[in-house]
Amino acid sequence: MTHIDPMSLPAPEPTDPAGLDSLLTADEKAVRDAVRQALDRVAEPYIAEWFEAGEIPNIRELTKELGDLGVLGMHLEGYGCAGMSATEYGLACLELEATDSGLRSLVSVQGSLAMFAIWHWGSEEQKQEWLPRMAAGVAIGCFGLTEPDVGSDPGSMKTVARRDGDDWVLDGRKMWISNAPYADIAVVWAGTAEGIRGFVVPTDTPGFSAPEIKHKMSLRASATGELVLDGVRLPASAMLPEARGLKGPLACLNEARYGIVWGALGAARSSLEVARRYAIDRIQFGRPIAAFQLTQQKLADMSLEYIKGYLLAVHLGRRKDASRLRPEQVSIGKLNNVREALEITRTARTILGANGISLEYPVIRHQNNLESVLTYEGTVEMHTLVLGQLLTGESAFR
Questions:
Q1: Which of 94, 119, 135 is the last residue of a domain?
Q2: Where is the Acyl-CoA oxidase/dehydrogenase middle domain (predicted)?
Q3: 263/67 Cα distance (integer angstroms)
């Protein structure tokens, strides 16, 4: 084997000290770069303003842009979906969340929850009716599982669906539903006499409403609402025929959690890079604060955790592309990467000092957003117990 002097190799870039870019194929880099370029044009200049205002004023236009880019349901095949790999989807999630968690949430809920539910569990008629429009960003979807009194234990949901002749009638409430206030279609899970079933509910159905949840301090660039179902009457064809029991919604959640494994890294990368540049430019005591040992320790620790999280995401992506990814392994990724990304944003904030709480910089926005990401799609406690059960063979959920 030919020996190469390591010191003769090009020095690593400070933005990629471990050479992570070499893990990606040319196609994967092309997808990543295309998403980044689009976001720099349609979202990055406005995202702090949207966060501060608590709304995206041109949400329909933005969703159409995301559809044109091909990121809505991009890992699904057919029906106008891009049919890209799991790793490519993950890289897109990373870039989306590097701009803002709210944008990644919009894409995740649309593609990995609402569209995936119809694509995986729906009838051919449901797929033909909704998926092409959702992939194009013309129709927006939401996913109704969480309830006001039921979060981590979805089997205890109180929303019910009862038969009335050939129809189904739904009654209940769902809470903390992303995309709900402007959604055209809701995938709603309800208890029936034959167990938990899923329903495709057009949001203009009488008895359905989605009041927006206000006064959030996190995910402000994402509309969140309640789903209110008061005697919502649906035809028999509205039921997802292939979804029975909790397996239906949990399979969808696993898809969304996989995207979060990557997405959280985007918030971490953005915060780390802002802190690195700030430390180089900020002068105190006659020298850049980057020259002080404590600052370098913070930057080194943040970089290490980002590198480890990225390696884990790539590993899980490769397993998913090979159809070898278990739900427990997704839990490992969600637990680690969100937790460490949140710690990176907190540490980055300390490097920026008082400027760290200003929306002139993205760090406090990422930090606030990740507080929600830490909780949704399975709390830290739930994913900890999933791993604990895997390690011990004992369930500690009850």
A1: 135
A2: 142-232
A3: 18
Residue 1 pLDDT > 70: no
Same domain? For 161 and 126 the reply is no
What does pTM read for this prediction? Answer: 0.96
CB-CB contact of 358 with 364 (8 Å) = yes
User: Is pLDDT above 70 for 84?
Assistant: yes
Residue 14, in any domain of the structure: no
Buried b / exposed e over 281-303, threshold 16 CB at 10 Å, is ebeeeeeebbeeeebeebbeebb
Count the domains in the chain. 3
Enumerate the β-bridge partners of residue 228. 173, 209
Q: Which residues form the catalytic set?
A: 377
Tokens of 218: 């996190």
The answer, yes or no, to whether residue 3 has pLDDT greater than 90, is no
Can you give the pLDDT at residue 149?
A: 92
Smallest CA-to-CA distance from 230 within 274, 282, 187, 170 is with 170
Distance separating alpha carbons of residues 134 and 184, to the nearest angstrom: 9
Please give the Cα distance from 279 to 242 (Å, whole number).
54
Q: What CATH number is given to the structural domain containing 291?
A: 1.20.140.10
Q: How far apart are CA 198 and CA 244, in angstroms?
A: 8
Distance CA 334, CA 323 (A): 18
124 and 228 fall within a common domain: no
pLDDT tens for each residue of 112-155: 999 999 999 999 999 999 999 999 999 999 999 999 999 889 99
Structural domain harbouring 123 = 20-135
3-state secondary structure of 146: coil
Query: Are 373 and 264 found together in one domain?
Result: yes
Q: Which residues, at least 6 apart from 236, have a Cβ–Cβ distance to it below 8 Å?
A: 166, 167, 168
Do 368 and 262 reside in the same domain of the chain? yes
What tokens were used for 24?
């990606």
Q: What pLDDT digit, counting tens, does each position of 13-67 carry? A: 999 999 999 999 999 999 999 999 999 999 999 999 999 999 999 999 999 999 9
Q: Same domain, yes or no, for 276 and 260?
A: yes
